[in-house]
Amino acid sequence: MSLRNPMIEAGRSGPDTERSHRPAARHRPQADGPAADVPAASVRRRLLLVGGGLAALLVSGCGFRLRGPQALDFATVHLNIPPETELGAQLRRLIATSGTTTVVEDAGQAEARLQILGNDRGREILSLTGAGKVREYQLTQTLRFQLLDKAGAALIPPTSLAARREYTFDDSQVLGKEQEEALLYRDMQADLVQQMMRRLAAARRAG
User: Of the candidates 15, 60, 151, 205, which lies 20 to 30 Å from 66 by C-alpha distance?
Assistant: First the structure.
């Protein structure tokens, strides 16, 4: 009868048993989570940067320019509105930034004459509350103008530009709403003046 050595049996069965019960190493798919999102996010950032660069190249290639000083085709211009008015001061400031044109007070010395035919503002009720109080107002502003050359011929015939803004009204905050209305009118006028400056920049003298 043979006796088994416990030490030998332990040494023989221990490692072999562990290997037999250990599952074979397999390739596991990457777990979902922040770590898995890092490469995708990095790729998206690269695509956005590349797309932005291509957009910038296309914009520069097609000749588009962001809003800025507008070069005019005449060296001197006369305005029929005084510089003390808000619109008169705004127009003189923008024409001065063109770098090509100077405003002169003598109409006979001007190569072109910009005539403001109207600058009208209005306010209409847009909606009411259930109690019959005003809920919303719509503000409107219309700027009408024409541009004549030195001989009186129309470089730009009488033209109307219009802008609209809406705002909610609260009769418990009358002062704040009056200030908001004034800011909206100012914003509309700035928008209309910019539109007019683009029209003036596109105008060309005869000959």
Answer: 205
Q: Which of 21-35, 73-87, 107-121 has the lowest mean pLDDT?
A: 21-35
In DSSP terms, which residues pair with 143 in a beta bridge? 119, 161
User: What span, in angstroms and rounded, lies between the C-alpha atoms of 80 and 116?
Assistant: 7
Position 42 in a domain: no
Domain count, the chain: 1
Q: What is the pLDDT of residue 195?
A: 96
Confidence band of 70 (pLDDT split at 50, 70, 90): confident
Please report, for the domain that includes residue 136, its CATH number: 3.30.160.150
Contact 182, 79 (CB under 8 A): no
Residue 153's pLDDT is 95
